Amino acid sequence: xxxxxxDEIVAKYQRKEGVLIQVLxxxxxxxxxxxxxxxxxxxQRLEVPLSQAYxxxxxxxxxxxxxxxxxxxxxxxxxxxxxxxxxxxxxKVEELLGISDGETTEDMKFTLKRVNCLGCxxxxxxxxxxxxxxxxxxxxxxxxxxKGYE
Length: 150
Description:
Layout: H1 4-12, H2 20-31, H3 36-46, H4 50-59, E1 71-76, H5 79-83, H6 86-97, E2 110-115, E3 127-129, E4 132-134, H7 139-147
Parallel strand pairs: 1-2
Antiparallel strand pairs: 1-3, 3-4
């Protein structure tokens, strides 16, 4: 892994204190996950223990220590979405992509996450691809939505 980009991200914060989370967010945005080499580089450059970087990276669900697909797909299974068919939406997504919660397709296009609430209960059931919300979703619409991201 070329750590030049990691160095550029760290340099952007000019050694300010308490920037570890922001640096990790920027690296996550750049690589779509937090590679081990990047965490080691951040630890050295910010002079924080590697265990602290790993602790933060593993605590927050926004971070991933494994490669993610190009598109992060979240299916809401909160109460409102659940009663409106959220589980059927999730089943259809799993069937179409051949993956389960937390997995990534072999072609690295999609990573699937089931979530407990997306905070838009009136739109349930809801599926989010990247940051695009698909509300009041019908099982019959899932395949067309996914094809739009290929």
